[in-house]
C-alpha cells in the first residue's frame, strides 16, 4: 500500500482528514514543528520534508499545507504533490492578501487576538453544519498563537512565481478565502468551499484514489 504524507492547513491538524476514506493508502500525518526566528515559508517546508524518509514522497497538502507542499515540489522534481483548497503561486492570492504584505497589520496583533479573529471569520471557510463549525473552532483554539502569527506573516511574504510541473491542484468553486477564479485547478469540486474536505469528502477521496 502506498505511503502518503498529509499536511493540514493553518489552524488545523490531522483531524481535518477524518472525513476522507483513506483506505487506498497508508496515511502519515505531518505535525507542525516550531518555526525558526524569521523563517521563510520555503525554508520551513524543507524542514518538514526532512520528516519524510522516502526519496520521492507523495504529499497531499491542504490550504497552507498546500503552499508548503508546493515548495517541496519545487525543490524536488521527483516528488508527487497534490494540493487541495490552496494555491501554487503567490499570484493566485486574492488582492487583499497581496496587499497585506505591504500593510502588515497582523504584526500589531498578538497571537491570541489573531486566533479570536480567526474564530470570527469562520464564515469565510464555508462550514455548514454544527459538527464542522465545532471542529474548526476546536482546531483553531488548539493552534499555538505564536505559530499562527508566524505562519500568517510567512504566507503574506511568500513569493512563488512559476508552479512546478509535479503538482496536481483540486479546488472548489465556492472557496471564498482563495477564490476559484484566481487559481488554475486540475480538478474542480462544484460548490466546494475552503473546508470542502468536510462536506465534499467522497468526491475528493475518489479523485485522490484515482491519482494514487
Overall description:
Helix content is 37%, strand content 13%. It has 212 residues and is α/β, with parallel strands linked by helices. It has a single domain (3-211), classed as Alpha/Beta hydrolase fold, catalytic domain (Rossmann fold, 3-Layer(aba) Sandwich). Helix 2 links the parallel strand 3 (58-62) and strand 4 (80-84). Helix 1 crosses helix 2 (64-75). The longest helix is centred in the middle third of the chain and has 13 residues, at 130-142. The model has no long low-confidence stretch (mean pLDDT 85).
Mean pLDDT: 85
How many independent structural domains?
Answer: 1
Record field, number of beta strands? 6
Computed Rg: 16 Å
**Structural classification:** alpha/beta
Enter the CATH topology name: Rossmann fold
Give the oligomer, counting copies of the same chain as homo and different chains as hetero: single chain
Low-confidence stretches: none
Strand order of the largest sheet: 2-1-3-4-5-6
CATH superfamily: Alpha/Beta hydrolase fold, catalytic domain
Major β-sheet annotation? 6 strands, parallel
The portion of residues assigned to helices is 25-40%
Count of helical stretches: 8
Query: What is the helix/strand order?
Result: EEHEHEHHHHEEHH
Strand content: 5-15%
> What shape does the CA trace take?
globular
Top CATH class? Alpha Beta
Distance between the termini: 10 Å
CATH architecture, by name, is 3-Layer(aba) Sandwich
Amino acid at each position: 500500500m502506498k505511503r502518503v504524507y498529509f499536511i493540514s492547513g493553518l489552524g488545523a491538524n490531522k483531524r481535518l482528514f477524518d472525513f476522507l476514506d483513506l483506505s487506498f493508502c497508508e496515511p502519515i500525518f505531518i505535525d507542525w514543528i516550531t518555526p525558526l526566528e524569521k523563517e521563510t515559508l520555503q525554508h520551513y517546508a524543507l524542514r518538514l520534508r526532512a520528516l519524510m524518509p522516502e526519496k520521492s514522497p507523495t504529499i497531499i497538502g491542504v490550504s497552507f499545507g498546500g503552499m508548503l507542499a508546493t515548495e517541496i515540489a519545487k525543490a524536488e522534481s521527483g516528488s508527487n504533490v497534490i494540493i487541495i483548497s490552496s494555491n501554487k503561486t503567490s499570484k493566485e492570492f486574492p488582492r487583499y492578501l497581496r496587499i497585506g504584505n505591504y500593510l502588515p497589520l497582523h504584526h500589531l496583533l498578538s497571537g491570541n487576538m489573531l486566533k479570536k479573529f480567526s474564530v470570527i471569520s469562520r464564515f469565510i471557510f464555508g462550514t455548514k453544519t454544527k459538527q464542522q463549525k465545532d471542529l474548526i473552532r476546536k482546531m483553531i483554539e488548539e493552534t499555538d498563537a505564536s505559530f499562527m502569527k508566524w505562519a500568517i506573516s510567512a504566507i503574506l511574504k511568500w513569493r512563488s512565481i512559476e508552479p512546478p510541473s509535479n503538482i496536481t491542484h483540486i479546488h472548489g468553486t465556492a472557496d471564498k478565502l482563495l477564490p476559484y477564479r484566481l487559481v488554475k485547478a486540475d480538478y474542480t469540486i462544484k460548490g466546494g468551499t475552503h473546508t470542502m474536505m468536510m462536506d465534499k469528502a467522497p468526491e475528493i477521496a475518489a479523485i485522490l484514489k484515482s491519482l494514487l
